């Protein structure tokens, strides 16, 4: 009351305070609205508290503990002793552990490179039009994504069996010398496992790339064609750059999948014969739960997580660079 | 215009790729129905449907599948609740400190189980939570929070703002607004979340292998044990595999659109 009376009186004298007067009610509602928004943000925190607490308890705290464990030598029972970087050094000094990283590189060829090439090839061969019946094909291509890896492992264990379909087919065409116990062979077990990964991921890559090409503007293709580009140049000039985002996604997912392979190996070969198909995840499992070297297992986990993170970040950065 | 030859080339490419996917699964199905223990393919009339019953019985699936169902149902229900709360908080209400908190949540989608499994196991052992269903359910829930929040936040943000404003005018509090308006409007996203969450929980092998033993085995772990014991009886092994794969496959047949769009969106994120 008094303030309004004063402002009116002053306003009549200068004119400027009239503006303040007019702004005042607006400011106070703005303040009220802001304070209400601040209050809803606290309500928001209350809503988010439960999920955040579960997440912190199950993921964040153990993540920190993994790093802590990785600096100790511990058999899971007696008192842990400080080990410094010894567990990490094992990646260099222990030939078996070091070999797991080499195996991952082989698996990456099969899980990531081969499926992406196949996916790109089919995306390039397909005309970018609505194809009747595409839904059925998409259903088939995604099938390996919804099957549990245990069953996928069994499917291929049968395919690769000594008298399984693969060897039967080889013998039928007279290539008896090539028939072998694929998953029991020191040389062939790892590529055989890799091909299972190819089977799992190539359909996914295909669906990703096909939907990606349909989003590329047809004008770009028309322009390339009027420039006299053939199908090959058209692919490298238009399709490939247009699929950059999808390529980044496919690479990240498939490389991480290769790095993390556990179920497939555990069901089919247990890392054998010898250690020829041992992956970091299998080495981690053995170190954590079979003949406990808990610190080493934690270190393997930390290295795997760090690699996954670095791969994801690098691929995203590269794909976003112009 | 698309010429006829182009159309034919399209179908040839797609069909060859599709056969590459289907062939291994097909031989597996045929093996499951074979009366021969080597899984040799036979004529339709000689199919031995009893393999499924034998495998069901010999692998002890009755118990393992019950365990898997209990875990999956609890995880799906909990997952949806946590995702609704978190997604509504981050997507609609705003959260104090979300500039820091939200990236931390997103980071969780990149943290693999391997990075946390070792301390999880030894901590849970201290609290007597290993080899218990509540223990493994809690881990599934925690691992699922990042995707759940990410997914439901996007769904709530896609809803028209005006709906929230008019509900606010009517004096609806945040709880009532979530329950009677936002959640029902975001139903399609919730259904996709239910399907994906069920699939991930049902298909899990690593976590179940580490945390559950003996009579608490899930279907996937029981299948792993079963195939180890029945190496020479391929037909039963295949039948067991199909039993374990069946629930998700049936859902996939019925809800293929939701599965595919959900997995693509989940892969692409932002």
From TrEMBL, chain A:
Its main location: membrane. The keyword Transport applies. Residues 1-12 have a biased composition (Polar residues). The chain crosses the membrane at residues 42-64, 104-127, 139-160, 188-210, 294-315. It is found in: Cell membrane. It holds the Pfam family BPD_transp_1. Residues 1-35 are annotated as: Disordered. It is a multi-pass membrane protein. Residues 101-315 form the ABC transmembrane type-1 domain. Keywords: Cell membrane, Membrane, Transmembrane, Transmembrane helix, Transport. PANTHER family: ABC TRANSPORTER PERMEASE PROTEIN (PTHR30193), DIACETYLCHITOBIOSE UPTAKE SYSTEM PERMEASE PROTEIN NGCF (PTHR30193:SF41). Belongs to the binding-protein-dependent transport system permease family. This is ABC transporter permease. It comes from Asanoa iriomotensis.
From TrEMBL, chain B:
It comes from the Bacteria. Pfam families: BPD_transp_1 (PF00528). It is found in: Cell membrane. Its main location: membrane. The chain crosses the membrane at residues 12-33, 64-88, 100-121, 133-152, 189-214, 234-255. PROSITE patterns: ABC_TM1. Residues 65-255 form the ABC transmembrane type-1 domain. It is a multi-pass membrane protein. Keywords: Cell membrane, Membrane, Transmembrane, Transmembrane helix, Transport. Gene3D superfamilies: MetI-like (1.10.3720.10). PANTHER family: ABC TRANSPORTER PERMEASE PROTEIN MG189-RELATED (PTHR43744:SF12), ABC TRANSPORTER PERMEASE PROTEIN MG189-RELATED-RELATED (PTHR43744). Belongs to the binding-protein-dependent transport system permease family. This is Sugar ABC transporter permease. It comes from Asanoa iriomotensis.
């Amino acid at each position: 009351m008094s303030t309004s009376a004063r402002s009116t009186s002053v306003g009549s004298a200068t004119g400027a305070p009239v503006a303040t007067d007019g702004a005042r009610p607006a400011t106070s509602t703005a303040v009220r609205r802001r304070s209400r928004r601040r209050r809803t943000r606290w309500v928001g925190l209350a809503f988010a508290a439960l999920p955040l607490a579960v997440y912190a308890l199950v993921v964040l705290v153990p993540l920190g503990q993994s790093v802590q464990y990785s600096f100790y030598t511990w058999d899971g029972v007696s008192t842990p002793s400080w080990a410094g970087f010894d567990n990490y050094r094992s990646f260099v000094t222990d030939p078996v552990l070091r070999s797991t990283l080499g195996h991952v590189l082989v698996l990456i060829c099969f899980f990531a490179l081969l499926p992406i090439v196949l996916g790109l090839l089919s995306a390039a061969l397909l005309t970018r039009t609505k194809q009747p019946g595409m839904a059925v094909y998409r259903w088939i291509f995604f099938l390996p994504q919804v099957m549990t890896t245990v069953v996928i492992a069994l499917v291929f264990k049968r395919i690769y069996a000594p008298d399984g379909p693969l060897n039967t087919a080889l013998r039928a065409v007279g290539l008896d010398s090539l028939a072998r116990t694929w998953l029991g062979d020191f040389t062939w077990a790892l590529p055989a496992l890799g091909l299972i990964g190819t089977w799992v991921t190539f359909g996914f890559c295909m669906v990703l790339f096909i939907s990606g090409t349909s989003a590329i503007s047809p004008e770009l293709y028309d322009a390339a064609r009027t420039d006299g580009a053939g199908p090959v140049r058209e692919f490298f000039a238009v399709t490939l750059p247009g699929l950059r985002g999808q390529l980044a996604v496919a690479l990240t997912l498939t490389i991480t999948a290769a790095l993390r392979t556990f179920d497939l190996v555990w069901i089919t070969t247990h890392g054998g014969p010898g250690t020829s198909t041992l992956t970091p995840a299998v080495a981690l499992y053995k170190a954590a739960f079979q003949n406990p070297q808990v610190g080493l297992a934690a270190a393997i986990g930390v290295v795997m997580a760090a690699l996954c993170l670095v791969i994801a970040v690098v691929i995203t950065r590269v794909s976003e660079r112009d | 215009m698309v010429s006829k030859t182009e159309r034919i080339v399209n179908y040839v490419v797609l069909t060859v790729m599709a056969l590459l996917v289907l062939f291994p699964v097909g031989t597996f199905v045929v093996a499951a129905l074979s009366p021969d223990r080597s899984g040799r393919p036979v004529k339709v009339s000689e199919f031995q449907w009893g393999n499924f019953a034998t495998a069901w019985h010999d692998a002890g699936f009755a118990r393992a599948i019950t365990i898997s169902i209990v875990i999956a149902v609890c995880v799906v229900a909990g997952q949806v609740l946590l995702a609704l709360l978190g997604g509504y908080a981050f997507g609609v209400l705003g959260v104090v400190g979300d500039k820091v908190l939200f990236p931390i949540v997103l980071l969780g989608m990149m943290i693999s189980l391997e990075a946390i499994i070792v301390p999880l196991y030894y901590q849970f052992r201290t609290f007597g939570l290993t080899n218990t269903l509540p223990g493994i359910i809690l881990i599934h829930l925690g691992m699922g929070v990042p995707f759940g929040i990410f997914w439901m936040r996007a769904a709530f943000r896609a809803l028209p703002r005006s709906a929230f404003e008019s509900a606010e005018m009517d004096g609806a509090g945040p709880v009532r607004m979530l329950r009677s308006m936002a959640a029902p409007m975001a139903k399609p996203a919730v259904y996709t979340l239910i399907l994906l969450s069920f699939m991930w929980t049902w298909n899990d092998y690593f976590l179940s292998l580490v945390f559950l033993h003996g009579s608490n085995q899930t279907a996937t772990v029981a299948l792993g044990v079963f195939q180890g014991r029945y190496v020479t009886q391929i037909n039963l092994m295949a039948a067991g595999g199909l039993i374990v794969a069946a629930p998700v496959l049936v859902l996939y047949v019925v809800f293929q659109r939701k599965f595919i769009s959900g997995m693509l969106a989940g892969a692409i994120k932002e």
